[in-house]
Amino acid sequence: MDDGVVSEFEVFYRAMASRDPRFDGRFVVAVTSTGVYCRPSCPSRTPQRRNTRFFTLPAAAEAAGFRACRRCRPDVQPTSPEWNVRGDLVGRALRLIAGGGVDDEGVAGLARRLAVSERHLHRQLVAEVGVGPQMLAISRRARVARMLIESTALPMSDVAFAAGYASVRQFNHGMRAAFGCPPSELRNTGSTGSANGDLVLRLRYRPPLAWQALLKSLATRALSGIEVVSGRCYRRAMRLPHGAGVVTAEFDGPSEVTIRLVLADLRDVTAAVARCREIFDLDADPLMIGDDLGSDPVIGPLVQLQPGLRVPGCADGFELAVRAVSGHQATLVSQFGEPLREPMFGLTHTFPSPETLAEADLAIPQAETIRALAKAVCTGELSLDRGADREESVAILLALPGIEPWTATHIAMHALGDPDVFPHTDPELLAVARQHGIADSPGELQRYAERWRPWRSYAAMHLLA
After folding, report:
1. For residue 64, which phi and psi values (nearest 5 degrees)?
2. Non-local CB neighbours of 270 within 8 Å, separated by 6+ positions
3. CB half-sphere exposure, 341, CA atoms < 13 A
4. Dihedral of the CA atoms 426, 427, 429, 433 (nearest 10)?
5. Which of 111, 180, 456, 465 has a Cα at 20 to 30 A from 63?
6. Which domains does the chain have, with CATH numbers?
7. Which has the closest alpha carbon to 150: 73, 95, 97?
8. How do residues 343-397 score in pLDDT, each as one tens digit?
9. d(C-alpha 326, C-alpha 34), whole Å
């Protein structure tokens, strides 16, 4: 400290010493005397300052030679919500890497997706999080592999390739580097699932989570043959990079959701997990959002009624966009959807692909809009995933025939994951605003909603809940 100014190191050290779980995921603590990195809330003895280092992400700690603590498991925590919120180059890159982007396309392909050079991408990531895209991908593989080892009965060779390793030798080396032991030592005797693609995994989130409201929202829009909501469960068919998949999610714990995956190809584990996290908005920080919105006279009481309310995402941005513009979704699925090899739980198809609908003979009123959407996605002009440039994607959507501003905002909220958009022209939202006496017109509502930045999407969900 100097002249009353507290250094960043001191801020992190005090946060660690307080063992406040709210800091978990925002940074990790590495201890040079043990070679281990931990969560800030780890119950182990507080290390001396001279033996302490702080890193933004686990990948940076691993690159510096530290391994994950076996007691507090910093590798299973949701990462900093900052990266879930930010729409800049680094935020987009981190979301794409988390979804397996480097494994699928390599660093060169990732850079092309982001319209920058590999060098510029590497430089920006190192400046912000301490490591480049390749090390981030290596760390992601290790975390996925450990999740599969601990939660399933898959043979180690299958775990290696499902997590994205090129060989079993690379897998063994990577696991020793990340966790300080061979993969076999990480396996629980009570591992569940089977070796035929049926996997049971547990995804952590920051509580609270208003799962009843989340499932109610998903049930309201559930598409027959694609989705089923029943009790505490959500089931859905997905079109994944290497084949179809079916997910069953059950909200059965205070800080985790149990998912069961049936995959045609185990290489789709990473993509399936990433999409589940997006559907249920599991990377949000409800306490931070609640603190920011809680003092508002309109939204504050609603936050108290339903703490942990999330903005539902989607399994496929193109699917959500088509469903937003068309009232004939069931017809599209029955005529152009890809049938599942083995229907289950009332799920029969995956949603039609952009390639299929771009050339389909659609006898519905929104045919021109759907074909325009599909062609824009097929050509790469339009991206509708969490790695997209949000402003650019919305501008492209609004230039397509039949896409209204409300529709583009809806897509930005639920497909692109923008936490700070507000569908002020939505008739239902405007009616609620009138009930609260805050606005009588879309323009008034848009101006009033400025006070809810940077969480206008969450404010909209509270008003509509």
Report:
1. -85, 5
2. 99, 100, 103, 140, 144, 163, 164
3. 9
4. 130
5. 111
6. 8-69 (3.40.10.10), 81-186 (1.10.10.60), 198-305 (3.30.310.20), 317-414 (1.10.340.30), 427-464 (no CATH)
7. 73
8. 999 999 999 999 999 999 998 889 999 999 999 999 999 999 999 999 999 999 9
9. 58
Residue whose C-alpha is closest to residue 163's, from 268, 78, 58, 278: 268
Name the E strands within 251-283: 256-263
- Which of 49, 43, 45 minimizes the C-alpha distance to 14? 49
- What pTM value is reported for the model? 0.92
Give the pairing type, strands 256-263 and 338-344.
Answer: unpaired
Q: Which helix (DSSP H) or strand (DSSP E) does residue 237 occupy?
A: strand 233-240
- Identify the CA nearest to 144 among candidates 194, 113, 183: 183
Burial of 109: CB neighbours in 10 Å, binned 0-12, 13-18, 19+: middle
Give the strands of the sheet with 198-204, arranged side by side: 198-204, 256-263, 243-250, 233-240, 227-230
Q: Are 289 and 327 contacting, i.e. CB atoms less than 8 angstroms apart?
A: no
Rounded distance between C-alpha atoms, residue 279 and residue 275, angstroms: 6
Rounded CA gap, 72 and 165, in Å? 26
- Is 299 exposed, middle or buried, given 0-12, 13-18 or 19+ CB atoms closer than 10 A? buried
Q: What is the pLDDT of residue 82?
A: 83
Determine the 3-state secondary structure of 249 from DSSP.
strand
Task: Characterise 439 by phi-psi region: left (phi > 0), alpha (psi -120 to 50), beta (else).
Answer: beta
The 8-class DSSP code of residue 232 comes to: T
Segments in the chain below pLDDT 70:
1-6, 189-197
Give me the DSSP letters along 162-205: HHT-SSHHHHHHHHHHHHSS-GGGG--TT-BS-TTSEEEEEEE-
Query: What pLDDT, on the 0 to 100 scale, is given for residue 193?
Result: 53
CA distance 160 to 193: 17
First to last CA, the chain: 47
Q: What is the largest CA-CA distance in the chain?
A: 72
For 253, the token pair is 């714990």
Cα 89 from chain centroid (whole Å): 16
DSSP 128-164: HHSS-HHHHHHHHHHHHHHHHHHHB---HHHHHHHHT
Residue 131: phi, psi to the nearest 5? -145, 160
Q: Which residues pair with 433 in a beta bridge?
A: none
CA angle 438, 442, 445 (to 5 degrees): 30
Nearest Cα residue to 127 out of 139, 119, 137, 138: 119
Active site residues: 38, 426
